[in-house]
Write a structure and sequence with these properties.
globular; 14 helices; about 270 residues
């Protein structure tokens, strides 16, 4: 079971689920936040499992002994079945937020699957991250009684953060990707450009969250923004000192801190 969870990319899966849940609570979804959490968890599990299943041959060629399928700790068939089951379960869980919000979330999950099945090896590799994360605020707010859309800048901030995460997420795999012919956008521009692009994109997302909502961020909000800034610098330092996995962990922290800024500012997500 532990190896199966590891094959789902469980750490980012939990982080994205936590972020979606925090946004839902902040937006006033109340008990409906549970459906948001379960839907996002199922969707992320399906994406993570499908990634490891579809990449299993490339992972073997790259010598990825850290991958449960490659290491023989879990059968590829089990991971593939898990991906399909999670995707199927995601459908009714998403629809518990209403058909409009549900379709938005299912579209985000479908776009994420296109990365695993096709786009990761193309110049458009960042697009699934941009679109899927950009749709997250809409999934949260469209599930409210009046089905309000989120402010445009909330979508922009989420899309910027997701795109920046893509640039960092690929850094640990550059050697293996080169050996197996993966030529996504990040591989084409190189690790240095990818790292600094990620920093700029995450900084832009933070600026949008910090300045665009009406009202003052307050002491807590300002302190969290400062914390995000420090974390972004730490991402760059980790990348430059050849610690790409630490850079990825710090990127997850940047995303979480940005959401904490949102929560600290109150219910602006539906203002």
């Amino acid at each position: 079971m532990i190896s199966l969870l590891q094959a789902s990319h469980f750490r980012p899966t939990l982080m994205v689920t936590a972020i979606a849940t925090m946004l839902a609570v902040s937006a006033g979804r109340g008990p409906g936040s549970v459906w948001v959490a379960l839907a996002v968890l199922a969707g992320q599990l399906s994406v993570g499992w499908s990634n490891d299943y579809l990449d299993r041959d490339r992972d073997r060629l790259a010598g990825r002994a850290d991958k449960p399928i490659v290491a023989g700790r879990v059968a590829a068939k089990t991971v593939g079945i898990g991906a399909v089951v999670a995707a199927l379960v995601c459908v009714p869980l998403s629809m518990m937020s209403g058909w409009c919000a549900g379709l938005v979330h299912l579209a985000a999950v479908a776009v994420a699957w296109t990365y695993n099945g096709w786009l990761q090896s193309t110049v458009a590799s960042a697009v699934p991250y941009t679109v899927a994360f950009g749709l997250l605020p809409s999934f949260v707010t469209l599930g409210l009684p009046e089905h309000p859309r989120p402010p445009a800048w909330a979508t922009i901030a989420a899309a910027l953060m997701g795109t920046g995460a893509h640039f960092v997420n690929t850094l640990p795999d550059f050697a293996g990707d080169a050996a197996t012919g993966v030529r996504g956008l990040t591989q084409r521009v190189g690790p240095g450009v990818s790292l600094f692009s990620a920093a700029l994109l995450m900084a832009a997302a933070t600026v949008v969250i910090a300045v665009m909502p009406s009202g003052e961020p307050g002491l807590l909000g300002s302190a969290l923004v400062a914390g995000v800034s420090v974390a972004i610098v730490a991402v760059v330092v980790a990348g430059l000192t050849d610690h790409p996995r630490a850079a990825w962990t710090l990127t997850l922290c940047v995303a979480l801190l940005n959401v904490m800024v949102i929560v600290a500012r109150g219910g602006w997500l539906v203002a």
